[in-house]
Design goal:
Distance between the termini: 46 Å
Helix content: 40-55%
Largest sheet: 9 strands, mixed
Strand content: 5-15%
Length: about 900
């Protein structure tokens, strides 16, 4: 069925008898246009457009009937009359929006995109910086770290001795909660063993979080002793997924790594630490963990609540002083580091959130400027109407209210659509795991975000509604009565205002483009940095051995797996390690030179257990000495390989090869440094995090190992053969991940890449809006100067000269905008680079490329109205009124 026939049937059903003659007129006109031929797509399009206009006119007449004259009531009050006037103005605003669907669509769409970005970014910023944390006295909650003088960084773990010293500082610390890092278990009471994140937690952790169990209880003091630590608390997620939220699971026994544990409670859905834990086991540390030589065994995280009136700096100073006294100076260079919990959770996401928040603010500003320019042009075309209404006695305040209501209708439509887009954007950000960067709860449009959206409507309405209001109030009644539409259509002041608005758009767009350029340079610098290893062609397979695996059994498993992997076709090197680069996980320990005549400085380092062949498989270069070999086995001399960061810190003027060092958490015997390798990043490509110390997995077995294989072909072809090897060599081990090392590297840059993508989108939208603004003002100017341009053409001006004049006008706007935007972007970036250390300063390329893009866009936007002006017929132009 042809569209025109379907539309004809729709009109027959909807229109009343009084309107049917209009339908007959449409049919007659369609027959005249087509004659004897079948209507083509142009005829169908014409019919649909005219029929739609007829239908909209019919709906306007029935939804917004014109008021009829009636006698004024004899008794009335001012408030009802004002309310009636307001309703009448609102109906007129709705009719005006429907009469100009093009303007309404442009304004609503522009504002929808801008407000969607603003609302979504506010939801992120609100969760990161503004929303109260879900814990009581959150302003007094801090995380404890082991730090070091001299700017050598800090580690994410403390030792049991550290935890005891912190808990004893009752003058500064009110309560301390502790949990272990990186502990996992296998749920073996099911058909297929399931790997679970299972930290051990102290009783104080649940108290300090102010958590209330959903079912059962939390740990008690009697369960914090060795032998009595067989109690577990399930996470809400595990309780729901594995037991269907059955409260009857409390009191039952479950099997973890073959041992029986009793479920004593279920944690609430939100507000638990550490984030991502599947269950908690009771923390019970024996007396051996508090021996004086175990300061370097750092595997605990601690959360504390400061006493009222104590600030972070004061507490940190006092805790460091107490620490020095407790260790009698044996831990020289080491100190306590306290970080507010919000800062700890937001972490590296802070910089990206701040930059993106500023970007969306600028985008909203550009949108408001663009809409103000559109509405000002609309007001200029309605100048005769405004002048006539002023001549009929309508006051300026009434006229201003009418215009603001029209603006408010468009703003409300745009913001309503923006809320829908914002919900989709927030969903996208959640799927992109942006919220996992700060772990402060789910992103959503809650009451706070909704109130912000309402504020956006009000601010936006005022921001871009002032220009048309000024044009309406300044309308000339005399000119309207004389019928001089051109004289009442706005003068030079309105034109200068529109030019100023477009210039401001260009300036703000330049700031955004410079920000995109700087962020791109920063991202490129991070991603292109020498990472110290080669991820291409490497397959990584993570394995977790069953609990209770003996060291000799683990050693045999490592050797058998590596021998069979190395024998696979195409494999050049095979190795294994417990913590790979960019994982951001691991454990740290003290590290000190053992030579008696040297001061015992202990800045610590990240421990990395690896097998022979690991450096070769990962492409980590040995700079001096040797790597680990098959001779570095249990019972032999403990050896370590250090990276360049550790070597330069401890041995700035000599070689460390052959030096004796004390490594906490490795062995009570001194270890010998046998090699130096390149630095590799810890969590991000631009972070080494204090350096790494590698020791042999054949000397100290680990439960979790990731085997890596370098191949000269496609690494994915090794996935199934490696799985088969592990099923045969270690049938009780759980394979937790099989992936390309290159994929892991890309995943480590997901956050910065997402921020750059969003910023580039904002910059592109800003560039488009600025170009639209230039086009709009030039098209409007050419339309208003038709008679002038016709006169010039009649007097001998060439079309090329007319085009040049219009383009020069566009370049004038662009040059002023680039000058203002260049200064603004320089000042903004100076402030941002001081605030955000990850952000690099802008180079000359940013200040050359961004203006060039803007200038080219302005020229292209100016060409359409310029060519239209050059094609004007002088005779027709001169006959126009």
């Amino acid at each position: 069925m042809r569209p025109s026939i379907a539309m004809r049937r729709l009109l027959d059903r909807l229109l009343g008898p009084d309107e049917q003659h209009h339908v007959g007129d449409l049919d007659e006109e369609l027959a005249r246009r087509t004659g004897a031929r079948t209507p083509n797509w142009k005829d169908e399009l014409w019919y649909l457009r005219e029929a739609t206009s007829l239908l909209l006119a019919y709906l306007r007449g029935h939804l917004f009937p014109r008021p009829t004259l009636r006698s004024a009531p004899t008794h009335t009050t001012r408030s009802p009359r004002m309310f009636e006037d307001l309703l009448r103005d609102l109906r007129m605003a709705l009719r005006s929006s429907i009469r100009t669907p093009g303007v309404t669509l442009v304004v609503a769409t522009t504002l929808a995109v801008a407000t969607a970005a603003t609302i979504a970014m506010f939801a992120v910023a609100d969760a990161a910086f503004l929303r109260p944390l879900p814990w009581p006295n959150e302003e007094r909650l801090v995380r404890f770290h082991t730090g070091f003088d001299g700017g050598s960084g800090s580690v994410d773990a403390i030792s049991p001795l550290d935890a005891r010293g912190i808990a004893s500082a009752t003058g500064q610390i009110e309560e301390v909660g502790i949990w272990t890092l990186g502990e996992t278990v296998h749920l073996t009471s099911v058909v297929e063993p399931v790997r679970l994140e299972a930290p051990r937690a102290s009783v104080g952790l649940f108290r300090i979080l102010g958590a209330e169990p959903v079912a059962g209880r939390f740990f008690v003091a009697d369960e914090e002793v060795p032998g009595g630590d067989r109690a577990v608390v399930l996470s809400h997620r595990l309780w729901t997924d594995a037991w269907g939220a059955d409260p009857g699971v409390v009191g039952t026994s479950i099997e973890l790594d073959g041992a029986a544990y009793q479920v004593v409670g279920v944690a609430p859905k939100n507000g638990m630490l550490p984030v991502g834990a599947d269950l908690w086991r009771a923390l019970a540390l024996g007396p051996e963990w508090y021996e004086e030589d175990r300061w370097g065994w750092q595997f605990l995280a601690a959360l504390g609540r400061l006493t009222p009136g104590t600030d972070v700096a004061t507490a940190q100073t006092e805790l460091t002083r107490r620490f020095v006294e407790e260790t009698a100076g044996s831990r020289e260079g080491q100190m306590r580091v306290l970080r507010p919990l919000r800062e700890e959770l937001v972490g590296s996401a802070r910089a990206g959130i701040l930059v993106l928040s500023i970007a969306v603010g600028l985008l909203l500003l550009i949108a408001c400027l663009n809409i103000a320019s559109v509405l000002l042009a609309r007001a200029q075309t309605r100048a005769a109407e405004f002048g006539l209404r002023r001549a009929l006695g309508v006051g300026g305040s009434r006229l201003a209210r009418q215009v603001m209501l029209e603006t408010g209708v468009m703003a409300t439509l745009g913001t309503a659509a923006g809320l829908g887009l914002a919900a989709a954007a927030i969903r996208f950000l959640s799927l992109s795991q942006l919220e996992a960067l700060f772990a402060l709860g789910p992103l959503s449009i809650d009451l706070r975000v909704g109130a912000f959206a309402v504020a956006i409507v009000l601010i936006a309405t005022v921001a871009f509604g002032m220009a048309p209001v000024a044009a309406a109030i300044g309308a000339d009644p005399a000119g309207a009565l004389q019928g001089g539409t051109r004289r009442t259509a706005g003068g030079r002041s309105a034109t200068r205002l529109r030019a100023g608005l477009v210039t401001a758009q260009i300036a703000v767009a330049l700031v955004l483009l410079v920000a995109v350029s700087v962020s791109t340079s920063t991202y490129r610098g991070i991603s292109s940095r020498d990472q110290g290893f080669d991820p291409d062609g490497v397959l990584a397979t993570s394995v977790e051995l069953p609990a209770g695996t003996e060291a000799d059994e683990a050693f045999a498993l490592y050797r058998a797996t590596l021998e069979r992997m190395a024998a696979l076709p195409g494999v050049e090197w095979a190795g294994g390690g417990s913590y790979l680069p960019l994982e951001g996980t691991g454990w740290s320990a003290s590290f000190a030179i053992a030579e008696p005549d040297d001061p015992l400085v202990d800045p610590g380092a990240n421990m990395r257990p690896v097998t022979p062949g690991y450096f070769e498989a990962m492409g980590i270069r040995v700079l001096e000495g040797r790597g680990l070999t098959e001779s570095d086995v249990a019972g032999g001399v403990p050896v370590v390989v250090i990276d360049r960061t550790v070597a330069e810190r401890f041995w700035p003027e000599s070689s460390p090869i052959g030096s004796q060092v004390s490594v906490g958490g490795l062995s009570r015997d001194l270890a010998t440094v046998v090699g130096i390798v390149t630095d590799v990043p810890h969590e991000r490509p631009d972070q080494t995090d204090g350096g790494h110390v590698y020791f042999s997995l054949l000397q100290r077995a680990q439960r979790s190992v990731t085997f890596v294989a370098r191949t000269d072909g496609d690494p994915l072809t090794l996935a199934e053969p490696v799985r088969s090897i592990l099923r045969e060599v270690a049938p009780r081990a759980a394979v937790t991940d099989v992936s390309l090392m290159a994929t892991r590297v890309r995943a480590s840059m997901a956050g910065p890449r997402l921020s750059l993508t969003l910023l580039a989108i904002f910059g592109g939208v800003a560039l488009f809006l600025a170009a639209v603004g230039v086009y709009g003002i030039l098209a409007f100017t050419v339309a208003r100067r038709t008679r002038e341009i016709g006169t010039r053409l009649a007097l001998g001006a060439t079309p090329r000269a007319v085009v040049g004049a219009v383009v020069r006008q566009a370049m004038g706007y662009c040059c002023v905008g680039i000058l203002v935007g260049g200064i603004s972007s320089y000042l903004l970036l100076q402030w941002l680079t001081r605030l955000v250390v990850e952000l690099q300063g802008a180079d000359a390329t940013a200040y050359l490329l961004a203006p060039a893009i803007l200038a080219a866009s302005s020229v292209l936007a100016a060409l359409v109205p310029a060519v239209n002006a050059a094609r004007l017929d002088p005779n027709l132009a001169l006959r126009e009124d």
